[in-house]
Amino acid sequence: MDHQTVIVLDFGGQYNQLIARRVRECGVYCEVKPSSTPLAELRALDPIGIILTGGPNSVYLDESPKLDPDIFTWGVPILGICYGCQLMAHLLGGRVVPAQADAAREYGKTDTRFDPDCPLFRDVESTGVTWMSHGDYMERAPEGFRITAHSAACPNAAIADEARGFYGVQFHPEVNHTRHGTDMIRRFLCDVCHARRDWVMEDYRRTAVQDLRERIGDGKVLLALSGGVDSSVAAALLAEAVGPQLTCVFVDHGLLRKDEGDQVEQVFSRRAMNFIRVDASDRFLARLARVEEPERKRKIIGEEFIRVFEEEAKRIGAVDFLAQGTIYPDVIESGAGDAAVIKSHHNVGGLPDYVDFKEIVEPLRMLFKDEVRQLGRELGLPEYLVARQPFPGPGLAIRVIGEVTRDKLELLREADAIFREEMARAGEDRRLSQFFAALTNMRSVGVMGDGRTYDYAIALRAVTTDDFMTADWARIPYELLDRVGVRIVNEVKGVNRVLYDITAKPPGTVEFE
Fold it and tell me: Is the pTM of this model over 0.90?
């Protein structure tokens, strides 16, 4: 089935994944492309609409990312958000200047008034809260545009040229802080772009299976199976597509949570697939010795994964394809074009230059996490597996801050197991999106049994989120935190302090590294 497509042009803003996620939530397929993508490549996608994202630069500076003005001649509706709005104004003859003092400069929640006659704001209350984040000011809108929203500090908070289907908003409708923001995006998609809303997971499953069969043919596939949601759904999808041609290799890299390796083997060795477990913990830990920088850890782990798979492929014989559970946020966060590298994912930015396979197959590469879960349900996977909390591919290596050692990993496993046990006992595990323990690289003085200690601090992290693009720290009951802290300090040798992280995403990320 051919889906209608919306292009999200990425100018390096922090919420760009979230824009794409909101479009998908509205039942419309979209792809995120770097702003430097040639117009011919974009036009080949035959988009029904284009969204220009936010970004950290100023449109009037020569070094800032720009856009070929020819895109405005296509007759395709365009929505500019923050930097995207200013760039559209700048290219079409408006004027954007630095904000003077606090005038027109806004950050955070802002009271905003909307023009109900603008298609974006139909059925939206005339006054609402938006999320602003800009230091520049659109002093003059381009010819043909009218002002459709304003705030106390920003008289040009939104602009529209309905005749050409061009709209710009200075605020961020994609974040939850903007009231009715998703409704505004939906209005652009449905009322302006006339989207059919044909992005349905049942259709994706059917077309993905067919595409995999055509691509793989009679070749053999080796899948990197971690037991997490992404690789498990990828395994189920590939099993439906090519059946016995698939071999799933579970690499126990020594960076898993307590008893996790045995649990993965127990679940997947019983399924109708070729399952191999490889104990590679010694070689991974040897490669990680004395490595402290997070990006180096990720790249080392990514390369070592590939080398293990290559070796297993040679033992199996005549393997043509390497399959991975890469998902869309992995691709975007690993950076492309003007987008910043937030962190290289071991299966994207961490891949070595040379891979000894005919091709890499990533059947989930264009899906967000909640779409992967939907697909897993479509494939008949059990809910306990589909709803499992995310666990990073590099495992505990990025939850041990600094150098990774066997002793540190054992210490962290015990602390994390206590945290998960107490959260489950209290029923908090069912309402939170993700929670875990991390071992900080900080040691501090304590007193235990009338004696001085100088031991590590464990940091607890728990977040709530709809999409993992943004997240808020979880308000866990004090009594529960107290139980967890007391147990960890008393039961885990080498820990004398427990901390709780109260940082949202952004400015932090869910993981520590």
Answer: no
Total Cβ atoms within 10 A of residue 195? 24
Q: How far is CA 362 from its chain centroid?
A: 16
190 close to 183: Cβ distance less than 8 angstroms: no
**pLDDT at res. 78:** 98
DSSP codes of every residue in 20-55: HHHHHHTT-EEEEEETTS-HHHHHHT--SEEEE---
> Would you state the pLDDT for residue 316?
85
Local structure of 490: helix, strand or coil: helix
Question: Please, which residues bridge with residue 360 across strands?
Answer: 322
Of these residues, 106, 174, 362, 511, which one is catalytic? 174
- The answer to whether 118 is a known catalytic residue is no
Per the residue annotation, which of 3, 90, 134, 172 is the catalytic one?
172
Report, as ranges of residue numbers, the positions in the chain whose pLDDT lies below 50: 103, 336-354
Distance of CA 261 to the CA centre of its chain: 25
Residue carrying the six token digits 């710009």: 168
Active site residue 82: yes
Angle of helix 281-288 relative to helix 294-316, nearest 10 degrees, comes to 150
* Ramachandran bin of 191, using left for φ above 0, alpha for ψ from -120 to 50, beta for the remaining angles: alpha
For the stretch 349-386, pLDDT in tens is: 444 444 567 888 999 988 888 899 999 999 988 887 88
Q: How far is CA 15 from CA 53, 57, 340, 392, in A?
A: 8, 14, 11, 21
Q: Is 253 a catalytic residue?
A: no
Q: Which of 3, 26, 30, 82 is catalytic?
A: 82
